[in-house]
Design a protein that fits this description.
The protein is built from 7 helices and 10 strands. It is an alpha+beta fold. A 6-stranded antiparallel sheet has the order 1-2-10-9-8-6. Strands 3-4-5-7 form a 4-stranded antiparallel sheet, with no helix packed on it. It is elongated. The N and C termini lie far apart (57 Å).
Length: 260
Amino acid sequence: MPGDDEQYLSDRLDQVQKAMRQGDADDVVRQVGHVRGESDSQTADTLLRLALDRELKQSRKRIRIWMAVAIVLAVGAAITITVVLPRTRLGTLADTAPTTTPATASTAPVPVGTPSAPNSSLAPPVPAGDGSNLTVLHDLTDFTLGGTFCSTSIEGTLDIDELAPNYENATITNCANDFRLSYGGKYIAEAPLTQPTAQACETQAKRGSQTRWNIDDVKAGEFAVCTTSKKNNVAWIKVVDKGPRGKLTLQVIVWKPAPR
């Protein structure tokens, strides 16, 4: 079984510790649940204990929160964690008094750069600069896309409308040893390595006939696509770095149709 493989358990341990360090309770529960389902409860409990031991050496303050998680898991009530613990970073709750938190909290890997919102109600839309009816939705931003073997269903997805991981509305994904158009995508095609105009990118995307590429063919600095979402937003996406397990660092710029 997968749970009996040392490399599998080592990888899971790394994922659990990573989720703990990010304060992501949902992901910790998900990781331990995977091991419990693929192996047995004793192996899952051992995995959680090892992760806790690692965290104890790094931060005694954070460990009190994770010990509470461990106790709930031990009595088989893992599915209640999302109710008991708010979907926000636990480190913030443990270290300080109540503070103002973001309106939305994500349990998935966050973009390397926080996307700006140039088209908010406080600022007029920024024209695409090519005479088209497209305006800038998200300025050129770095975004990290999970590897070919993702630990969560949303880790390797990108919704260009929100510039965030989103399984149900993803425009692209790379969680299955490939790079492909996903549920929320409409058109996609390979594109120039230098940023095209919004209109040229939209036209290029609609010309595409290939919707998926083997991850081995997706090379850093040598692969870019133009894609459109079902909301008719347009994105130019360039791969600028690639990790050993297929994790991609992307440069992304998104345009949206201007109001009529």
